[in-house]
Amino acid sequence: MPQAIATGAGLGALVLLCVFVIPHGWYPLVAAAVALATWEVAARLRDSGYIVPTWTMIVGGQLMLWLSWPFGTVGLVSGYVTSVLAVMIWRLFHHGATTAPRNYLRDMSVSLFVLTWIPLFGSFAAMISHIDTEGAAGFGVNAGALYIITFMLCVVASDVFGFAAGVMFGKHPMAPAVSPKKSWEGFAGSLVGGVVTGALCMWLMLDRHFLWGALLGALLVACAVLGDLVESQVKRDLGIKDMSNLLPGHGGMMDRLDGMLPSAMVTWVVLSAATENLALPV
Fold first, then answer.
1. pLDDT over 50 (residue 282)
2. Closest among 185, 56, 57, 68 to 130, alpha carbons compared
3. What would the pLDDT profile of 45-85 be if each residue is shown by its tens digit?
4. Residues with Cβ < 8 Å from 11, sequence gap 6 or more?
5. Are residues 247 and 7 in contact, defined by beta-carbon separation less than 8 angstroms?
6. pLDDT at residue 242, rounded to an integer
7. pLDDT tens, 106-153?
8. Which residues of 93-116 are buried (b: 16+ CB within 10 A; e: fewer)?
9. 3-state secondary structure the chain
10. 229, 186 in Cβ contact below 8 A?
11. Model's pTM, two decimal places?
12. CA-to-CA distance for 11 and 26, rounded, in angstroms?
């Protein structure tokens, strides 16, 4: 536990450094995390006999993420379809033009899953910093940073409240066949933490209706839990405990990002809608 806390504190400090100190530091941080997570998952897949194009997926993921900087979702989608095409061609001719590929559908499907699971979702985390920032409270910092901090605070609150509730009250497993340690009580704790934190951040920092924050917190927690369950099942299929030992006390990079990646997508959607001042049924 002390090792995990120390690693978590170091990661938190790195996030704050990239958000508040290093100019435009958020995109490089997300890009590095996405590349490392893609490498981890591809390595474990290859260990299990899958034929996946590690470097093609890493480069394709970077293309998706960096094209989203100047071109937004248009650049992201363009990078995604380009990466898919590259992976399709690579796997088709992996053994040359004279040898028929075997397990093509299996390997293509898992490669496209990785491209979607990690760099596509991860690109939404990067794009949070580029949401239109008019109307944010400011606090003397770049308003884009407030969106990132809102996302990170909701993630942390979900993890902390969920862990505490699960340890103290957890009795009813949520999905015992996939992740025996996850309980409905832990999910309820995550939901409370995410909703309250989201509502406070949206109201106090972003100058939006607190119900936007409650919606953000609820959807973020749901996506985070589903992301955790998906990674648990992937590791179960591969017969491993962690994706790597890159982060002491946490396992691999993907073990830290599993819930954050789908949460980033829904965070970008909700914050974009809130910034556009879409009407709420209140």
1. no
2. 68
3. 999 999 999 999 999 999 999 999 999 999 999 999 999 99
4. 247, 256
5. yes
6. 85
7. 999 999 999 999 999 999 999 999 886 554 555 556 667 899 999 999
8. eeeeeeeeeeeeeebbebbbebbe
9. CHHHHHHHHHHHHHHHHHHHHCCCCHHHHHHHHHHHHHHHHHHHHHHCCCCCCHHHHHHHHHHHHHHHHHHHHHHHHHHHHHHHHHHHHHHHCCCCCCCCCCCHHHHHHHHHHHHHHHHHHHHHHHHHHHCCCCCCCCCCCCHHHHHHHHHHHHHHHHHHHHHHHHHHHCCCEEECCCEEEEEHHHHHHHHHHHHHHHHHHHHHCCCCCHHHHHHHHHHHHHHHHHHHHHHHHHHHHHCCCCCCCCECCCECHHHHHCCHHHHHHHHHHHHHHHHCCCCCCC
10. no
11. 0.89
12. 13
* pLDDT (0 to 100) of residue 6: 78
List the structure tokens of 23: 């100019």
Q: Residues in the chain, how many?
A: 282
